[in-house]
Amino acid sequence: MSQPYSQPYSPYRSAPQQRRRQSLFSGIKLRLLLAAGIAVFTLVSYAMKRQANPITGEAQQVDMSVNEEIMLGLQSAPQMGQPSRNFAASQRVDRVGHELVAALERQLGAQGIEQPYRFEFHLLDNTGQNRDSVNAFALPGGQVFITEALYRRLPTDIDGPLAGVLGHEIGHVLERHSAERMTSGSLMQGLARAAGVAGGTRGSQQAAGMVAGLVHKSYGRKQELESDGWGVKIMVYAGYHPEALLTVMDVLEAASPGSSGPEFMSTHPRPANRSDYIRQIIGEYFTDGDLIGLRD
Length: 296
Known about the structure:
By secondary structure, the protein is mainly alpha-helical. The protein has helices at residues 15-48, 66-76, 87-110, 148-151, 160-174, 177-199, 202-237, 244-255, 271-285, and strands at 50-52, 59-61, 120-124, 136-138, 143-147. It has nine helices and five strands; from the N terminus they run H-E-E-H-H-E-E-E-H-H-H-H-H-H.
């Protein structure tokens, strides 16, 4: 009796299997090539966005001119909120802010440096849903804001702490931090997009975006400390004792008693860590003799 025909065993894959395998590897190769192209384009574009800071002279990755920063800040300012109805407090913020700028310009002028930014200082109304927003911030080009919620927590009988807040925000403008953040944000987004394409799944894209976000937050912490350094120096230039900035750190600490979580998840260092840095900057730049007679 004849045996039924059976195909002999072959160690080789069938043609359809080989085609599927080749197709799979072709897809992976295409994704990797596309991801590499996105990454290279992103990195080259970022490297070409390099300018010298007009104040510090240091090279920075920035993708706009000083005039463009100023125009962006002026255009964005009306969207930041309603101005305070407390005329006297608004006048005080304006007076102290321009006092700091004048002192800074005298100091820079003695070094042959022209200050190119257009500074304006605003006290924001907090009577609406943002009444508990304890905050101060600066837009590109010199628009500086402080909320009433923060202003009310500062002493009113001395100007030093207010000068510390405004000096810190002036520092953000001088260091072009907003422009840097926008440029570095584009870099992180581009690299995250490349990583997501290489991974090929939605999960890999989300993970890449999360990592990019954490890296980008580290820029914020570094910039906050740089601005604290400027705050210290500008206060001394204007005749204020820089330790008044430590009072601001105490206010910020008291304003967020329930904050928790690791510092790397935040764009701002904890106030206690900033206080340590402020003391370090004071000791590095000024002697005890330099600080004699300065006002609170």
